[in-house]
Amino acid sequence: MRWRHLDKSVFLWLLLVAALLVLVINPLARLVWSSFQDGATGAVTLDNYLAAYGRWRYLEALVNSLVLGLAVAAVCVVFGVPMAWAVSRTDMPGKGLVWAAILGTFIMPSYLGAVAWILLAGPNAGWLNRVYMGLTGAAAGPFNIYTMAGLVLVIACYSFPYMFVFTRSALDLISSEMEDAATTLGAGVLRTTLRVTLPLTLPAMMAAFIVAFLEAIALFGVPALIALPGRIQLMTTTLWQFFEFPPRVQVAAAYAMPLLSITALLFWLQQRLIARKGYVALTGKGGERRVVRLGAWRWVMLGYCLFITSLSFFLPMVVVLQAAFAKAWGRGFSLDNLTLANLRFVIVDQPITRAATVHTFVYGGVSAALALGLALAIAYIVHRRLVPFGRALSYVAMAPFVIPGIVLAIGFYAAYTSPPLALYGTAWILILAFTTRFLPIAYANSNAAIRAINPELEDAVRILGGGRLLALRRVVGPLLKRGLAGAFLLVFIPATRELSSAIFLYTTGTQVLSVLLFDKSDEGNFEYLSAIGLILVLGTVTLVLAGLRLVGRDFMLTRTTTT
Amino acid sequence: MSKLALRHLSCRFGSVTAVDDISLELASGEFVSLLGPSGCGKTTTLRLIAGFLPPSGGTVEMDGDPISSPASALPPEKRNMSMIFQSYAIWPNMTVAQNVAFGLEVRRLARAEIRARVGHILDVVRLAPFRDRYPAELSGGQQQRVALARAIVVQPAVLLLDEPLSNLDANLREEMRYEIRRLHDEFHITTVYVTHDQAEAMVTSDRIAVMNQGRIEQVDEPRALYARPRTRFVAGFIGRTNFLDGEVHGAEVVFDHFAIALARFDESPALRGKVAFSLRPQSIHLHRQPPAASERTCVIPGRVVQRAYLGEHWDYAVRPKDGELQLRVTARPHEVFEVNEHVWLEVDPGQMALLGSSIGT
């Protein structure tokens, strides 16, 4: 009798709490805890912090990372803001082409961009240097990607889309009437721009600045390919060195604390900036948006946009394609240099890469399904108020958003290398880490999808005699289908290219393509690297095209960046 | 025995009491409206009846059996009721016919039976040509009729409607009022109808329960509710009215600058101390000359202070004997008076409704 009165949703709630414990809370707690633990004895100690911050080299890495972050964010402003303004407010031609190139930039994994830039601006052998030498007859080219400037350029190339998307959506909300209001009061174009347009877009730009900064300091792939050979110490590469044999997890955990706290703090700040809706929402949807006529300058503007997207997309794509199909990339663009041997080698001949290709898409798919299932269940019980403390569940589900991938990986390593849950060495540790890492994207999308379903649709099922399960099966499920396909892809795509958490958690049997690409980079076989990268890009393009069909034009550009 | 009974029903959310000790009984086949301003607890009451909410106190009984009490509530799906929601809640992933057939499928009727009943109800609500359309392809009024068909086809013991017309435009709303009443006259389903629109309640209902701040103020037939409101809230909420505050002095009830003999009131034995009445604007008649005295009416001199011509009628504000009180008077279009003109007000005390809540205050 008491059993029948017990609300069965309690069990679902317990299940979800258990899942979140494994995925989010335990790794984070173990990360913090192990930073205070002696590696050998397990006793509480501060030695890890002394070891992590006791050497100038480690402190220098911290400073370098901050400088890198600021520089990248500043370059993103220079790259992204003019493009956003041109696409949103001017009569610049070729907007579709610019948009496609930015989507292409988004699709290209940044570490593949780094490979491409090594081909482009490697000292002496890089394409740009060879062109320069050919044109001037000089003995050496001026470009060297293995420098701080090179590092900033490459990272900025793959972060500026955030700036573009944030600024463009802010500009899209400002109606021309607002600017007209200033003009009728006697303000000129310059004063209107400085006093009205710019302040209205500033919060969005600040938010994007923060995202770009955080992206830069938490990135592992590009620094590993460029900063390590260039002997530039950064936080993430230093963390990587702590993991070289024998791994010093406790020191790494201590060293990860500033990264974690800076990220958490800045994301909080960014949310506050975006939450000040009063700034933007007042504009409403009315009011037409007139385009600014640029005259001849529109061609200059288009030139600028194409220049930036050449740096981020067109040039890297050309050299990667060339290398992937070349017998030796240095021999250049000639027909007798063409070969399919690299792709054949990666896909067919090499068992490791063949397995890694399968792993990449299987792990990505499984973790996307897990993240989405968990996110949906949480979003549903929070919105339908089926359990007490639902809000707390949703906060925990969103928490991984502020954890850099590399820090999350250290937490997973600390939590799951020993019993009771010894997952290290199995595929599950990668799958679960990916699940956690992209849970916030899944949650944000599930939340939006569930919110769009009027609860009365379910009430209608129940009052006509159907139970809650029937309502889920016949009404909620079918209605969610479309939106969830998009959400699934939004998790699947980043999961297939994730490097920064995979690099700490893979073992020989569980390589994925991104790890393989990084692993093989010190062999200097760029034809091989490009072929691996090409497979990744082709896989992603297929998924994105599916997403575009399902969700529409703004798939990915708007939805990943506004989570 | 009543079909549906609410007994001392209460519902609290934290410190807020949404429904406060209400009791109401519906006879089988009766159509009762819950009428009140937004936030008065009428939708909460409906959801308590449906079983979507457990009561904090009191019971809901159907055919004499309790189905909701603070201890246990029968889940909505076991109540054999159906409901029409404010949003209609038509499932957008199913066609008109699939929507309507859903409740019958849940009840495991034979396929032929389902076909026949769906076909019949779609004829009744004039949707037969649209049976294979999806809801997004229908107009607002058609969607509304799908919701009606879906709720009625299962022949529920009780039909609940939650502001079903609030999302329609004015013309359609008027048409659907009569549609709802027509369907009730055809199927005789015991119905609870929630609305904030008095005209809707008047057209559709056998009885109306006026709610305010979680309580039922008065339950009556539409005509009685209008003619004899018992509280200040009901008088003010249903139609427009004048409030007259007075005091009993000897054989007279004294108002602001005028008095009416106590004996003229039907309730005269009960009147003492301070009293308040509601007097409808159309129950007052204006005259240029003092009208002949009659048994029923009394005559008060006054002055027009404001007027507005509204096409169908005049709207005057008249001050009896230059007091503070202003009375609203509705007059026919040909009854023209100028502002500041001296007039005679003819009032029938028998049409003055004594407001219960004023007794003893």
Please describe what this structure looks like.
The complex is a heterodimer of chains A (563) and B (361). Chain A is mainly alpha-helical and 563 residues long. Chain A has 2 domains: 1-34 and 316-563, MetI-like fold; 46-286, MetI-like (MetI-like fold). In chain A, 72% of the residues lie in helices and 0% in strands. Chain A has 24 helices and no strands. In chain A, helix 16 (351-383) packs parallel to helix 19 (427-451). Chain B has 361 residues and is of the alpha+beta class. Chain B has 2 domains: 4-229, Rossmann fold; 240-358, Nucleic acid-binding proteins (OB fold (Dihydrolipoamide Acetyltransferase, E2P)). Helix content of chain B is 23%, strand content 33%. A 6-stranded mixed beta sheet of chain B has the order 6-7-8-3-9-10, with helices on both faces. In chain B, strands 13-12-11-14-20 form a 5-stranded antiparallel beta sheet. In chain B, strand 4 (57-62) and strand 5 (65-68) form a beta hairpin. Chain B is elongated and about 75 Å long. The chains are: A mainly alpha (563), B alpha+beta (361). At the A-B interface, helix 20 and helix 21 of A face strand 6 and helix 2 of B.
Main attributes?
heterodimer, A: 563 residues, mainly alpha, MetI-like fold, 24 helices, globular, disordered C terminus, B: 361 residues, alpha+beta, Rossmann fold, OB fold (Dihydrolipoamide Acetyltransferase, E2P), 2 domains, 8 helices, 20 strands, elongated
Describe the SSE topology.
The complex is a heterodimer of chains A (563) and B (361).
Chain A: H1 2-5, H2 9-34, H3 47-53, H4 56-89, H5 95-107, H6 110-121, H7 127-136, H8 148-173, H9 176-184, H10 189-218, H11 221-226, H12 235-242, H13 249-275, H14 297-324, H15 341-349, H16 351-383, H17 390-398, H18 405-416, H19 427-451, H20 455-463, H21 468-497, H22 502-505, H23 513-519, H24 526-551
Helix pairs in contact in A: 2-18, 3-13, 4-8, 4-10, 4-12, 4-14, 5-14, 6-8, 6-14, 6-24, 8-10, 9-10, 10-13, 12-13, 13-18, 14-24, 15-16, 15-24, 16-17, 16-19, 16-21, 19-21, 20-21, 21-24, 23-24
Chain B: E1 4-13, E2 16-26, E3 31-35, H1 42-50, E4 57-62, E5 65-68, E6 81-84, H2 96-106, H3 111-124, H4 140-152, E7 158-162, H5 170-187, E8 190-195, H6 198-204, E9 207-212, E10 215-220, H7 222-227, H8 232-237, E11 242-249, E12 252-254, E13 259-261, E14 274-279, E15 284-287, E16 298-309, E17 314-320, E18 327-331, E19 342-347, E20 353-354
Parallel strand pairs in B: 3-8, 3-9, 6-7, 7-8
Antiparallel strand pairs in B: 1-2, 1-4, 4-5, 9-10, 11-12, 11-14, 12-13, 14-20, 15-19, 16-17, 16-19, 17-18
